[in-house]
């Protein structure tokens, strides 16, 4: 079974207008509500690629109800811990200048954290995959991420992690199956400036030495580099298209990679679908459709550059 974890999900209220006048009444031309969160994005894309999965984390209040309803409409099974608080709402203003106002989110109580760990302790079995994406919610620390990684290792479950440098590096000792830093995060982890593919490979291998089994480094317009636990290094190209919205592109890359790897066990095919999935979401309003992913896969080239 595939599980995703989003510790601090959100409802994104997206408001579109021509111009914002601060200090005055503004009216929008169009608004929409979107279930947000990196793990939630992964769940949606996994399902669109044909993989049943269970979305977990913490939800509460009317906004939490909206997220659960949205996931069910996508065919994703929600198994969130119900908290006595309202899931955050972020405001995204799309006008002459884009403005985002992100809420902190509710403080997660230790009793609710324990409920989630108890759930995973009961349901996880060898061969499952857990994807943990995003940053910690208020009330949580890196110890909670490490505990998830440790539980997955003890259950022989593949653990996939996409988070900030501190949370990511804290979990490396438990040998996550896949991590996905971008070039900037790679620079931050090692306190260097990573400019070249050779440097990406060098520092990616250092992450493997610290425990990561497979490493994808996303490079924006330069594609992505994959370092495998069997020693190969691959680079993907980028398809042509107009970037509409980069939100969720990295999440889609990871989900697309994992979906194909579960099916084939082949790294090249998995990187190709991951790259196509990330680009497809970047070229879309919201998370990509399978149809667009299948179309872009034909444009992706994978070359072996090491190993």
TrEMBL record:
Keywords (A to Z) from UniProt: ATP-binding, Kinase, Lactose metabolism, Nucleotide-binding, Transferase
EC top class, as a word: transferase
Keyword check for ATP-binding: yes
Span of the signal peptide: none
Gene Ontology MF terms: 1-phosphofructokinase activity; ATP binding; tagatose-6-phosphate kinase activity
One matching Pfam family: PfkB
Keyword hit for Kinase: yes
GO biological process per UniProt: carbohydrate catabolic process; D-tagatose 6-phosphate catabolic process; lactose metabolic process; small molecule metabolic process
Domain annotation Carbohydrate kinase PfkB: ranges: 9-288
Reaction catalysed by this enzyme: beta-D-fructose 1-phosphate + ATP = beta-D-fructose 1,6-bisphosphate + ADP + H(+); D-tagatofuranose 6-phosphate + ATP = D-tagatofuranose 1,6-bisphosphate + ADP + H(+)
Enzyme Commission code: 2.7.1.144
Pathways involved: Carbohydrate metabolism; D-tagatose 6-phosphate degradation; D-glyceraldehyde 3-phosphate and glycerone phosphate from D-tagatose 6-phosphate: step 1/2
A GO cellular component entry from the record: cytosol
InterPro entries to which the protein is assigned, alphabetical: 1-PFruKinase, Carboh/pur_kinase_PfkB_CS, PfkB_dom, Ribo/fructo_kinase, Ribokinase-like, Tagatose/fructose_Pkinase
SUPFAM superfamilies with a match to the protein in the record: Ribokinase-like
Function of the molecule: Catalyzes the ATP-dependent phosphorylation of fructose-l-phosphate to fructose-l,6-bisphosphate.
PANTHER family linked: 1-PHOSPHOFRUCTOKINASE (PTHR46566:SF1), 1-PHOSPHOFRUCTOKINASE-RELATED (PTHR46566)
UniProt family annotation: Belongs to the carbohydrate kinase pfkB family. Belongs to the carbohydrate kinase PfkB family. LacC subfamily.
Stated name of the protein: Tagatose-6-phosphate kinase
